[in-house]
Write the structure tokens for this entry.
Amino acid sequence: MLPRLDVAGALCVPLLVAFLWRSRFRAAYAGVFVVVAALELYGTSIGVWRWATELPGLGIAQGNPPSGVASGYVWFDVMALLVAPSLMLGTRSVWARLAPAAA
């Protein structure tokens, strides 16, 4: 459907399928995918931005927009949900150590 070859997007599709198949948050991830895809299609169609023809440093062809970009945002959300609890526990322990010193 896109005017450019999009190998990078094709490589991201299995990742998206895995997230949608294995996650209990599949509806949220599907929503992120749809919204990001619509935003990318709209933004590139009116010329607000454009994507490089290849992934920098890798030489893998990508579309404008790459179809995998929406999958990438889903991946960012998954990673944030996985990492955030650990970060919160880490900051709580830092604050707990600093609180007695501040008092």
About this structure: The chain is about 70% helix and 0% strand. Residues 70 and 82 are 19 Å apart (CA to CA). The two ends are 63 Å apart (CA to CA).
